Amino acid sequence: MAVLLPMSPESVVVTMACGRLDALRVSLPMGAPEPTLRQALREAGARILVVADACEHAGGLYPAKQQADRVLADCPTVRSVIVVHHVPRPVPWVPGRDLWWHQALDRLGP
Predict the structure, then answer these.
(1) Residue range 72-94, pLDDT digits in tens
(2) CA–CA gap between residue 66 and residue 63 (Å, rounded)
(3) Rounded Cα–Cα distance for residues 27 and 105 (Å)
């Protein structure tokens, strides 16, 4: 599982879930150039990406999901993208692949 999140409770939850599932967590660096993110995803063979819609980074707004979408065009192993809401703004969406974090948690039940 690849993760492109700022320091947040969701990032901790993903780390704990990966430990419980004995899954590899690959942290992608915020603000990294697209070739770096693409290489990390390919090397990890990640099937799931957990990404922020956008977040504050380096004194500005970082459109994490938008950048991830460009990177994922060349990473066919990633089948699911779980998007964590951080900043109210339009978010690019791929139906059937993308899912909001809160909806993913609702599917798990109580």
Answers:
(1) 999 999 999 999 999 988 999 99
(2) 5
(3) 21
Closest CA to 81 of 56, 61, 100: 100
Q: Per residue in 24-36, pLDDT tens?
A: 999 999 989 999 9
Residue 93 CA to residue 100 CA, distance in Å, equals 10
Which pair of tokens denotes residue 68?
């991830």
Rounded Cα–Cα distance for residues 44 and 94 (Å): 22
- Tell which phi-psi region holds residue 31, choosing left (phi > 0), alpha (psi between -120 and 50) or beta: left
Amino acid at 34: E
Element (H, E) at 77: none
**Would you call 64 helix, strand, or coil by DSSP?**
helix
